[in-house]
From TrEMBL:
UniProt GO molecular function: chloride channel activity; protein dimerization activity
Sequence ranges assigned to domain Anoctamin transmembrane in this UniProt record: 282-865
Residue span(s) of domain Anoctamin dimerisation: 48-279
Gene that this polypeptide is encoded by: LOC100904736
Keywords noted in UniProt: Cell membrane, Glycoprotein, Membrane, Transmembrane, Transmembrane helix
Protein localization: Cell membrane; Membrane
GO cellular component terms given for this protein: plasma membrane
Similarity comment: Belongs to the anoctamin family.
Organism: Galendromus occidentalis (western predatory mite)
Lineage: Eukaryota, Metazoa, Ecdysozoa, Arthropoda, Chelicerata
Record has Glycoprotein as a keyword: yes
Record protein name field: Anoctamin
Length: 925
């Protein structure tokens, strides 16, 4: 129905009929060679059709006992045959459910035709010629010409020179880098096609081509009003087919020398935890998109090593100096007899400052002098990480022939094409010429849906904020209950913080499951043209919500908690009932660290358990959902007509029991890692061990994801992408926002600025002895209301004064309980610190971005050299072909073919030079 997409037009055109006739004719003419593949020619672990030659690229599954949808299946399968695909019908054994499996194979004619439509870049022939052969082709030997046009050693040398010391190698031995250009079926002689042509395309490319056809074939002979009667996904949703998937290679238990077995033993095994990832093999098996994900995840994990080392050093510094810290000694020894005011106006008790000793020691582990240095390091680390990733990514895209990939060449989504067909039909029904039809403008189509999506997202965010406020109210109420019952203040604080963090974690998981489905619906309504645009739109919606959902409570503790709680005798209340929370004597750093640790570590544990248990549960449900049926004559006749077989080894049945990864499978993997990246960068000042936990998680995350893709999920369809997409821009924004976040945490949540203020201005000894007493204000207990009753009043002795943490005037002064000058001076210095911190980091990160170019010069030079040599290879093959056509061996000059010579590097230097800083584009056939 919507077979090929040559331009913005949609619908079925004359080119499609010509294509089908050509494919059918060529398919029949090539049927005789289907018996040429011997046992030695068969790939290990690959499943073949009943002819023993054709490789199985895709499998369709349906229940033959259900008569509903039989008409749709017949039409759809007829369209597949008309497109040139081969179909094999195999029925499962009764004990396995009796389902019908349709094995699909794409012959060379289909593969080559759609490879050109989908703009696949394939390797061209490379020739090592003797100088005499060059002289026979060109007039005279080219000066300074080597024996070979290109060598693998030269390419590996260029790749090695471009590698920085901080960049890991993607694999121990990179695959041979062949010159590649966009495939053209009319110039097959230019490409390095083997004797068995089908082996020219990898299994990931073959499944991608078949999936492209399956998504665009119709299952209806009548044009419906909505024109959505096409695509295998629609048939799966309405139950016509039960599944559609490409096959895994080989067995998951036996050593069959297949690529899958190689990846299982050398990549997905725990014994390969500290080995380099075979990225080229991953790309060959799963496609570019999955390969880039693991390349990014491996690079991110590698870059966490220096951040983890510095984080451990920062934590060890606090651990080693906690017993010599003057503020801690003030709390535990020097001012242990100070009586502190009750933390609420009714029911709480007086307590001694010494009871806060453990709290003060625990806070100092994360709030010490090394925190600022570590925050500066992480800000610079995040900038260096992004810049080094761009260099690393440019090397990978060069190796994988993605340098000239343009997203504008990406084929439109079938849903988008169908929507345009509906609009075209409505346009024609109004009596207008369809040749004048143009797709709806941004203002008429995209803007209204965008506004609606933003409104729904804001509503979801408000609900998320409401849940966070509910957790805050719970914390207030629970703290009041514990205070009324009495007990240790530090223990109560830890219990309240931990329980509130666990409740917040449960809210996060619940909201994630609901909002994920909502975001998909909103993105479907927007109807993006390409899959990349669809993924980017969905990613932005999901991450915006996840950002608020995961970080709302953390921002509350870091920014708002304790800032508006009031003072003894005049505490502020929420809803007139719940007293606002106040920070402890050492500030809110302890609670912020607990919140970060619980949410970050807990979320990673839940994600790991979900990734491990969910595929097993889905596999169990899928295997039990196979119906028992009897074989009927019609099915057997259809199977016999197609040459169906009854294999003992049935990988299609084995893979059917596995759950589907789906188009958005990698999205949640990226989302988990980017949220982790946010914890590492945004709040690292409060939790220096965040990079350590992230590193430990990622070391096993790589292997867990690898085993999940190889064993626990069906093989995903390969996709081509240029980079990691919008995730890079999200990380860039997080890196910039983390500067402000860490500056605010250090300035307003930690005690760094007050300590420096006291040390430099108030203490002539230039130490922090007496700092705790400096931060405490006085309150006269006689100023309490008469109906207020606090426990342990005997701790006051003969005094009527208690102490509380704040900078307020004493009760005997004229402006009793008002903010002092010290408070406002410290507040100003906090703002000055934020400004200085931000500007210094911005200058340093800008310098890093300037010093580290996005693409290494050696790679840029190699791309230009490859383009030049590729042009020469193309010209060489053209000249040799012309010689064979003329049947002569005379000396041929490039001047005999001026249309070709103009593109040669021998005729002009234009092909080997580009503007400064510009990415050279590869040649196109």
């Amino acid at each position: 129905m919507f077979e090929l997409e040559l331009d913005e037009t949609v619908g079925k055109g004359p080119y499609e009929d010509i294509l089908h006739e050509t494919l059918t004719a060529e398919f029949v003419s090539e049927n005789d060679r289907s018996k040429r593949r011997g046992k030695k020619d068969k790939k290990p672990g690959v499943c073949y059709m009943s002819d023993g030659f054709s490789q199985v690229d895709y499998v369709l599954v349906y229940n033959p006992t259900k008569s509903d949808g039989q008409r749709k299946r017949d039409i759809f399968e007829e369209e597949l045959l008309r497109a040139g695909l081969k179909l094999d019908y195999v029925q499962a054994n009764a004990k396995r459910g009796g389902l019908m499996f349709i094995k699909i194979s794409a012959p060379w004619e289909v593969l080559s035709t759609y490879a050109e439509v989908m703009h696949f870049k394939m390797p061209v022939k490379e020739s090592c010629l003797r100088r005499e052969e060059w002289q026979a082709i060109y007039e005279g030997a080219p000066p300074n010409r080597e024996v070979c046009l290109a060598g693998n050693e030269e390419i590996e040398r260029a790749l090695g020179n471009s590698r920085l010391s901080l960049q890991p190698r993607p694999t121990k031995k990179m695959m041979h880098k062949q010159f590649a250009v966009t495939f053209s079926k009319t110039k097959e002689y230019l490409f390095d096609i083997p004797e068995i042509k089908e082996d020219f395309f990898s299994s990931a490319q073959r499944s991608q081509i078949v999936n492209y056809i399956l998504q665009r074939k119709t299952f209806s002979r009548t044009e419906s009003e909505e024109s959505f009667d096409f695509g295998v996904d629609r048939l799966i949703r309405d139950g016509t087919y039960m599944a559609a998937y490409p096959l895994h290679e080989g067995s998951n238990t036996e050593a069959d020398h297949s690529l899958r077995h190689l990846l299982l033993t050398q990549w997905a095994s725990l014994f390969s935890t500290f080995k380099e990832q075979p990225l080229d093999d991953i790309r060959r098996y799963f496609g570019v998109k999955v390969g880039l994900y693991f390349a990014w995840l491996g690079f991110y994990t590698y870059m966490l090593v220096p951040a983890s080392i510095v984080g451990i050093v920062t934590f060890m510094y606090g651990l080693l100096t906690v017993h010599t810290n003057d503020p801690t000694l003030d709390v535990c020894e020097r001012f242990e007899g100070l009586v502190m005011c009750p933390t609420c106006d009714t029911g709480c008790e007086y307590w001694n400052l010494k009871e806060n000793c453990k709290h003060s020691m625990l806070t100092y582990l994360f709030d010490n002098a090394a925190t600022v240095c570590f925050s500066v390091f992480v800000a610079l680390w995040s900038a260096a990480f992004l810049e080094l990733w761009k260099r690393y990514c440019s090397r990978i895209t060069y190796q994988w022939d993605l340098t000239g990939f343009d997203t504008l060449e990406e084929n439109s989504r079938p849903e988008y094409i169908a929507e345009m067909a509906v609009l075209r039909r409505k346009y024609a029904q109004k009596g207008r010429d369809t040749d004048d039809f143009r797709k709806p403008s941004y203002w008429r189509r995209k803007l209204p849906y965008t506004i609606f999506s933003i409104s729904v997202i804001l509503l979801a965010i408000l609900l998320c904020v409401a849940a966070a406020i509910a957790v805050i109210i719970y914390r207030m109420a629970f703290r009041t209950v514990l205070a009324l019952k009495g007990g240790d203040e530090v223990t109560s604080s830890v219990i309240v913080s931990t329980s509130a963090a666990l409740i917040n974690l449960l809210c996060i998981v619940l909201f994630n499951s609901i909002y994920s489905q909502l975001a998909v619906k909103l993105t479907d309504m927007e109807m993006p043209r390409t899959q990349s645009e669809y993924d980017d739109s969905l990613t932005l919606k999901m991450y915006l919500f996840q950002f608020v959902n995961c970080y709302a409570s953390i921002f509350y503790i870091a920014v708002f908690k304790g800032k508006f709680s009031g003072r003894p005798g005049k505490y502020n209340f929420v809803l007139g009932t719940y007293q606002q929370e106040a920070c402890g004597t050492g500030g809110c750093f302890q609670e912020l660290s607990i919140q970060l640790a619980v949410i970050m570590v807990g979320k990673q544990l839940i994600s790991a358990l979900y990734e491990f248990l969910w595929p097993l549960l889905m596999k169990l449900l899928q295997s039990q959902n196979q119906p028992k049926i009897d074989n009927n004559a019609d099915i057997r006749e259809k199977m016999a007509a197609q040459g169906a077989i009854d294999d003992d080894d049935r990988p299609w049945e084995r893979d059917y029991c596995l759950p589907e990864l789906g188009q958005s499978g990698l999205f949640f993997e990226y989302l988990e890692m980017i949220l982790q990246y946010g914890f590492v960068t945004l709040f690292v000042a409060a939790f220096p061990l965040a990079p350590v936990f992230a590193l430990i998680n990622n070391i096993f995350e790589i292997r867990l994801d690898a085993r999940k893709l190889l064993l626990q999920f069906r093989r995903p369809v390969g996709q081509r992408v240029k980079d990691i997409g919008v995730w890079y821009r999200i990380m860039d924004v997080l890196g910039k926002f983390s500067v402000l976040s860490n500056a605010g945490i250090i300035a307003f949540t930690s005690e760094l600025i007050p300590r420096l203020y006291y040390l430099l201005k108030y203490n002539p000894n230039r130490d922090l002895v007496g700092y705790v007493n400096f931060t405490l204000s006085y309150f006269d207990t006689n100023h309490y209301d008469k109906n207020v009753n606090h426990k342990h009043r005997e701790r006051l002795g003969n005094s009527t004064y208690c102490r509380y943490w704040d900078y307020r005037s004493a009760p005997w002064e004229d402006r009793a309980y008002k903010r002092t000058v010290v408070y406002w001076e410290i507040f100003v210095w906090r703002l000055v610190f934020v400004l200085l911190f931000e500007n210094i980091i911005v200058i340093l990160t800008t310098l890093i971005r300037w010093l580290i170019p996005d693409t290494p010069r050696s790679i840029q030079a190699k791309i230009r050299e490859d383009n030049r040599l590729t042009n020469e290879l193309i010209i060489l093959q053209e000249l040799k072909r012309r010689q064979l056509e003329r049947g002569t061996r005379r000396s041929v000059s490039c001047r005999d073919f001026p249309d070709i010579a103009e593109t040669s590097a021998f005729g002009t230097e234009e092909s080997s030079t580009t503007e400064e800083g510009a990415q050279p584009s590869p040649p196109r056939v």
